[in-house]
Amino acid sequence: MIIEALIGFTFLAALVVMLAPDEYAGRLAFGLSLLPVVGSLYMWSQFDATGNALLEGGSLAFETQVPWLTAAGYQIQWFVGVDGISLPLIVLATVLSSLAILSAWTPIDSRQSQFFGLMLFMEANLLGVFTALDFFLWFVFWEAVLVPMYFLIAIWGGPRRKYAAIKFFVYTNIASLIMFIGFMALVFNLDVNTFGLPAVAVALRSGGLSGAFGLSPTALKTAAFAAMFLGFAVKVPVVPFHTWLPDAHVEAPTPASVMLAGVLLKMGTYALLRFNFTMLPDVATQYAGVIAIFAVVSVIYGALLALAQQDLKRIVAYSSVSSMGYVILGLVAYTQLGVGGATFQMVAHGLISGLMFMAVGVIYNVTHTRMVGDMSGMADRMPVTVGILVAGAFGYMGLPLMAGFAAEYFIFQGAFASSVIPVAPLFTAVAMFGIVIVAGYLLLAMQRTLFGPFRLETDYEVTRAELHDTLPLMVLLLCTIALGVAPDIFFTMIKEAVTPILAIGGGA
Amino acid sequence: MAAFDYAPAIVLLPFVSFLVSLGAALYGDDVLPKGGALAGIVATAGSLILSLWVFFTVSAGNVYNQTIYTWTTGAGAAGEEALELTFGLLLDPLSSMMLIIVSLVALLVHVFSLGYMNDEGETGLPRYYAGLGLFSASMLGFVVAHNILMAFMFFELVGLCSFLLIGFWFREPGPPSAAKKAFLVTRFGDYFFLVGVVAIFATFGTGRFAGAESFPVLAEEVLAGEVAVNTFGFAPTTWFTVVGLLVLGGVIGKSAQFPLHTWLPDAMEGPTPVSALIHAATMVAAGVYLVARMYGFYAVSPTALAVIALVGGFTALVAATMGVVKREIKQVLAYSTISQYGYMMLALGAGGYVAATFHLLTHAFFKALLFLGAGSVIIAMHHNENMWDMGGLKDRMPVTYWTFLSGSLALAGIIPFAGFWSKDEVLYEALVHGLGTDGGLGTIFLVAYAFGLLAVFFTGFYTFRMVFLTFHGDARTGQARDPEGVGWNVKGPLAVLGVLAAVTGFVNMTPVADLFDLDIEYLHRWLEGPEGVEFMSALSAHHYLELLESDVTGIHAAELDPLIPGGVSLLLALAGVGLAYALYGRGEPEEYTAKLGGVQDLLYNNYYQDEYQVAIAERVVLPLSRAADKFDQSGVDGVVNGVSSVSLFSGSRVRRVQTGLVSNYAALVTLGLTVLLVAFGIYGGWLL
User: Fold this and answer.
1) Transmembrane ranges (chain A) (predicted)?
2) What whole-number distance in Å separates Cα of residue B584 and Cα of residue B572?
3) Cα–Cα nearest to A474, from A376, A362, A380
4) Residue ranges covered by each domain of chain A
5) Cβ-Cβ contacts under 8 Å, A377 against chain B
6) Is the pLDDT of residue A508 over 60?
7) In whole angstroms, what is the distance from residue B136 CA to residue B116 CA?
8) Per the count of CB atoms within 10 A, which of A12, A89, A272, B105 is most buried?
């Protein structure tokens, strides 16, 4: 019941905050958002799931499965539960939502109750995405996440917010449609009468798929895989489906960027893992080389794009493309460290990119510019913020004993000797070169903006950041270090959940 | 052993001082007395005491190789056992010796910083001491690491500290730029290192340095045909060489070897005590130490050894020539550091494990001494570092002069100072192995030896050019005539290191031992390690020699009296010193190197090494990224926007259908129905 309690409470909190007066909305929302944090940490402490949620031999934690309605002979269920893959993402979503709300106190100065209400509404749906195990239910949450994000960008965004919001919405929505068609094509030709994801996964692998549309079962599988991969690749985003991301990030208000990079992108990688790589492992392994090319191109090309940017937020935005490329590489490796590392990277990148966006946001709050050329020597005026930003940047570069290094190292180690990816060592080594480029663009940007003699091209007086601005940064930094020093906080349960996937992917 | 139980505290104590100083830095400059220096001094003194305890415990015949914390476990390949990713300590003769070097120099540098930073009224001291504390902790962690992943992690952390401390004066434009360059160039090397680490785990399933299940031992067994590992389709020798060279990338970066040496001279932008600790005695040593740490792995790959020797010898010579024309005292020392680490690499490549370790030991002391001496001079000169503005400081700062002279004699390799013994052994090893080894490998060793031998002359010259210009003759500026005095906190560390630079060489006087048939090669005996400990036999100096002389590697030593090559190198060093004396030691010195014309420009600009590296960054990588950005905006995003404009356009056209006229709609309905009917008709076969 705790999952229902969490989701229900967060929806309720969203409603309460929507109705609250603007001046209290921020504080109220933050206070209310702490309860889901406590709840998710309680779930972590009581976690007892074994195996993978979708595969035989596993048992879910906090499971609820009740029939909801029957449509066209298919049973739709309220089916939620967590395994070792989803729980870390739930903790990430609650923690990051709370901190993003806190970081919104300063920059959001109009229609606060709506803003904070939408943030909580988004959090509730995110919790749904990561817990739902019935496709219909999951898809409702999946689509519902887009709505608040659309408004967050379109109302509180920058000058080109309309363009960015519509691009974001249309692009990801079309992708969802393609994915939806792909999945439905599978289910309707499958020997099941439910949308329950575990049942679909089992039926797919037991050969219950019949051909359709003139396609053989294998061809149908491949087509469905391609459709779903495309749908999720937009969300991740994988190059070349990434161009909505920088626009959305640049225009979005900082707290929305934090959620977008920190959690929303992980919906894509989470879904790839749950659908493509768990349900259709035979197709994934067959096309592993192609997928690995997507991954490596995302890493290197994304990093090169980041190097060319002059807007701090764009730099961080493009670097996400690069980091998500590592996730794809880890997933397709079908090894324990590869898939586990990819899952770990989802959390690690969520924390670190959240930290980076927030820190850039704090600087923007006082300087009203994000352009690299507009400022220098900010370390002189904002020592604490800059200190944390530097620490976060090194975390992004993969400094050992921070979460990003653990995740990337696991992925590299897992991909290098993968028997699924052709010429795995070469792919891995090329992707690893990303760690040099990321150091290049972050160090260059830091040198130009944070160090050197103080200079600011805007007419604003630089003031010290408030405690509620820097506190979320510190919390994220500490979380990043904690996960880097003791990755087993999450990695033990992640390994438990990914190991069954390896067996079906021929990788174990 | 009790000492080993407390050994983790060697790393943790400086880490605590880091946390203390960091807290103070967040709270304000004057929370702690001396800005956090005392915490650092206490912590590093504690580390030194514990390190000595470990040293004596090791010398009593005990060694330690234990995991203390499991980071995580996980399988990296199908059907393989889970890899154990752990933190643990390997305390053996090599690491316990290095622990003393690092903790001693760290302690002295902390004390010296009282004079260089506190007394000079610097701000931001807690941040400075936090950096020093974190550096000391990371470096000590690197030294005791018992597996290569842990070593890599601390290797990166010392890189971070180097970045932070080089950029300590972040309000000026120079230091942040130098800090960036240092991190980036070493990161480029570390990329290869990390690929190497991943490859080692993927190949051997372990990253341990010592023990029956360690990768050097496994490599040996694979080559002996006793076990099999995944060598990714290559022959084992080829693959091990590839892996060894990958790890070497990190070594070349950190130890500032050609062609990744360019960051070190820039790193002199940092405070001088930092240069002494990080960029002379310890962090730069990390690369060489790593090769020594896993020497068993390199010893079975002749190709890797040849590369190491050649890179080392070449770097030793090239860096020494660049040191000849520099005007600033710290620049001379920076190039000298590059050159001296080249000697260590030369020794490692040419099969001189003991010689390399020996030179690592002596160099740590005499180079830290020279940097601190230069720091003392810089205080005296009110932070003017140009040697042409100095002169005549000998009489005004005698403690600095005499200690600096001790360090200089050691650096130049003049008997009986420390550097003479160690450099002589390096060159001797290269020569005898070059003469004794057949084929191309022997030739390479001889070439590398020739480089190293030639560098001796330049070393003697630039060292004493520096000494004469700084301390001798008449004061050339007002600053030099009236230098600022330095306190006990500067003189104390100088005195300690001055004595060490003079006497450390006595721990391994190989020529004397050979000549009089004495058993006084203490360092050699020390690196043999205690008898009867199982894992130690694979880490001992004689085991490495066995590997080198095995059929796999095929390195052999020629019989050669050590006196002749020793005499030759001493004569060359003296010739260098003599030339320096002739040019700069008498009367009013001139910039004689100006007469070299184009050669001087070439040397002063470091053979334009920086230029081509900057050009790669600015003229290749940046334009590439801009081109990618342009392609992304017009190409990739252009398609996206194109699709949307097509749909907008078609939408606007289709909209015209909605005219609002009922007759139009009726016509369209009729038309549509007709088309459908015809279509169905054709499909059903009723028509046609």
Assistant:
1) 85-108, 139-156, 168-189, 222-244, 256-275, 287-309, 315-334, 346-366, 386-411, 423-444, 471-491
2) 18
3) A362
4) 2-505
5) 170-171
6) no
7) 18
8) B105
